[in-house]
Amino acid sequence: MSCATRQQVTTSEPARRFDVKVASLYSHLENTQELRTGIAPLELDELAERASDALAGRAGRDALIAFANSYRAYAGSTPADTRPPSSVSIQRPLKES
Fold this sequence. Notes:
Blueprint: H1 12-17, H2 22-25, H3 32-55, H4 60-75
């Protein structure tokens, strides 16, 4: 459901996508919150897959930068009103403290 954030999802969207009536979904779901709760693990799986691909063969700072960029790209795939303030990727190594 990457076209909407979890809090914006209603039963009408998946019903339309799967070409079923909204009432049919309620035979499988108790309420809209149950639908939203069920989406969360799918979102985490998608983020984990993207991060895993980005981290392959990297270590240390390069891995941290790759993870940050994959996370930012995932967050940027949500609607404009929920995007992070900056979509600039990290290009240089992080400064040491």
